């Protein structure tokens, strides 16, 4: 049989078309490779996320009642102090002179009272004169007491045992009235003040367990508890202030930030699958080498895992990352 080049070329074209058709049929009807995962049992947690700042439970500003020049500083930031300890003194020379003057007047008023009483006892004076002298002496004593109190305000003392958190002022600086020189903490442990979105605040209740993560302690989780919830929200941020107490003294410092997960509900033996496996309340399961669409009811949704309440068993392998072109009954090969 004689084969011509024209016939050979035609045969090659036919074989190529047949091969291409077979490849197209294979791609259309042959099995595809999918990544599957089995459902697992584990804890499912519904939590409210928030961020907050570590702060002392009691923090007080210490400021002078009157303006004055700072003459003496006795403590630094971080120093422990005891109740009544002198922290700073402001210039009080003018007030001291006022006290000296008023004390002299009070002594004179006292001598006048003694004289009036002596004259009354001898029958040479009157009760009216004695009472007038007593009134003047009492007024003089009250004026002295007020001047001494004003001078005393120029000395700042610790209200209780505690620690100096911050100091704002240097010797020689003129301090206006009511401007804090120190910030002082005492009497209670640290806590976290957090802002919770108004959409979640109704889920938060005092006493709820809280998991705390701080950038200063990577890889470590601290325990806490919801202590207080402010009854009034912030209309600007649409959030509510929540205070968290630590379960034990934390190795954190005031002003550090923290991330919170306030536990609302926890189920210890939930059925969990990869969160990426669910789309439109359904998953794709593999049975007998073929894909089957399976509606499911979900529970708590997390970043990595999602809880399945119904529609799936522990033994059903689910496609971890389903594709939009999946078809019911399509042949697959598990990876």
What does this structure look like?
By secondary structure, the chain is α+β, with helices and mostly antiparallel strands. It folds into 4 domains: about 30-40 and about 270-335, conserved putative lor/sdh protein from methanococcus maripaludis s2 fold (Beta Barrel), CATH 2.40.420.20; about 45-60 and about 190-265, Beta Barrel (Elongation Factor Tu (Ef-tu), domain 3), CATH 2.40.30; about 60-85 and about 155-185, Beta Barrel (OB fold (Dihydrolipoamide Acetyltransferase, E2P)); about 90-155. It has helices at about 5-30, 95-120, 125-150, and strands spanning about 30-35, 35-40, 40-55, 60, 70-75, 80, 85-90, 155, 160-165, 175, 180-185, 190-195, 210-215, 220-230, 240-245, 255-275, 280-285, 290-295, 295-300, 305-310, 315-320, 330-335. It has a 6-stranded antiparallel barrel. Strands 4-11-9-6 form a 4-stranded antiparallel beta sheet, with no helix packed on it. α2 packs antiparallel against α3 (about 125-150). The longest helix has 29 residues, at about 95-120. It is rod-shaped, with a radius of gyration of 41 Å. The two termini are about 50 Å apart.
């Amino acid at each position: 049989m004689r084969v011509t080049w024209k016939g050979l070329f035609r045969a090659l074209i036919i074989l190529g078309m047949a091969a291409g058709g077979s490849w197209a049929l294979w791609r259309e009807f042959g099995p595809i490779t999918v990544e599957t995962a089995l459902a697992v049992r584990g804890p499912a947690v519904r939590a409210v996320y928030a961020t907050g700042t570590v702060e002392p439970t009691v923090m007080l500003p210490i400021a002078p009642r009157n303006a004055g020049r700072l003459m003496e500083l006795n403590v630094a930031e971080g120093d422990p102090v005891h109740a009544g300890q002198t922290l700073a003194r402001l210039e009080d020379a003018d007030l001291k002179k006022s006290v000296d003057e008023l004390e002299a007047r009070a002594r004179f008023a006292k001598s006048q009272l003694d004289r009036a009483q002596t004259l009354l006892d001898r029958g040479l004076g009157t009760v009216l004169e004695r009472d007038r002298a007593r009134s003047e002496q009492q007024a003089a004593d009250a004026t002295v007491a007020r001047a001494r109190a004003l001078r005393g305000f120029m000395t700042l003392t610790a209200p209780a045992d505690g620690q100096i958190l911050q100091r704002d002022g240097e010797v020689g600086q003129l301090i206006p009235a009511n401007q804090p020189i120190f910030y002082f903490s005492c009497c209670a442990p640290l806590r976290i003040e957090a802002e919770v979105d108004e959409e979640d605040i109704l889920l938060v209740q005092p006493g709820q367990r809280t998991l705390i993560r701080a950038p200063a302690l990577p890889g470590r989780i601290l325990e806490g508890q919801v202590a207080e919830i402010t009854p009034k929200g912030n209309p600007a941020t649409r959030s509510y202030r929540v205070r968290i107490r630590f379960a034990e003294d934390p190795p954190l410092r005031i002003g550090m930030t923290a991330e919170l997960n306030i536990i609302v509900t926890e189920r210890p033996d939930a059925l969990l699958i990869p969160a990426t496996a669910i789309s439109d309340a359904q998953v794709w399961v593999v049975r007998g080498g073929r894909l089957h669409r399976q509606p499911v009811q979900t529970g708590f949704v997390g970043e990595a895992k999602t809880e399945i309440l119904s529609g799936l068993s522990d033994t059903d392998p689910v496609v971890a990352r389903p594709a939009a072109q999946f078809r019911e009954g399509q042949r697959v090969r598990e990876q």
